[in-house]
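Submission sheet (multi-component)
Chains listed below:
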Amino acid sequence: MAARILYGKDFAAKIKEDARLEAEKILKATGVMPGLAVVIAGHDPASEVYVRNKHKACGELGIFSLAVELPETATKEELLARIDDLNRDDRIHGILVQLPLPKGLAAAESEILNRIDPVKDVDGFHPVNVGRLSVGEASLVPCTPAGCVRMLELAEIPIDGARAVIIGRSNIVGKPMMNLLLQRNATVTVCHSHTKDLAAITREADILVAAVGKPGFVTADMVKPGATVIDVGINRIAPKKLVGDVDFEAVSEVAGAITPVPGGVGLLTIAMLMQNTVTAARLQAGAKK
Ligand code: GUN
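Outcome: structure written.
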């Protein structure tokens, strides 16, 4: 039987509407409009599209947005100085440095991300926020995994007691996803490039998350009939053709529910970024009272 298709736009609309209402409430109560700064260095075409979409979403939801554009040749010191300015800027409650950084800055990625004030870290990448997530005290959680978990909740797909398998152990997706699912009482396994007999493990999953970065990596024989399959991959296989990590055609015949690419998880990421910006504004407005 064909799987239920989990379209990102349906869930993103609900997450964004909640963020819009909360932004409105904060503005009425404190006179503060939540504000997001997106810092981009260089001209990576995919990143430029993502950044445009972020500013557009801010405009729709009553969130102030500031674009900080630096040349590909920007130095680490220049970028750190801009982050320091944004840390001090009262209009800005969330700061996001778009990744990947240009070649000349990539080695300094941790130092750059760690310079963001943790209360403004809407990506949830700062070690303080990573630590808070792992002890269950998180307020700003990485947007992609947070969006996926919110989607599961909105779709009423049970997490408590489920067997969840994540393929990929990145700091952006795999590890925070592990923590979020564990907190909701799933039994979680994280697989990676050294995992032996991967298919035997993935076939046990009620919830299978693919965050590998390889087109068609998850095939139908790796999926338990009826499982929920979340495809976090975004792979460009031709100038205008994006695919995920999952062989969608074949897997959708086996899975119970599946996210498409494009049109799936990507939309949830932006929606969650809006929610994180509003949450950051609420926390900062509260702290000033
Ligand atoms: N590039 C791709 N995904 C992300 C993300 O979640 N955050 C940032 N800052 N850059 C990205």
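Remark: The longest strand covers residues 35-41.
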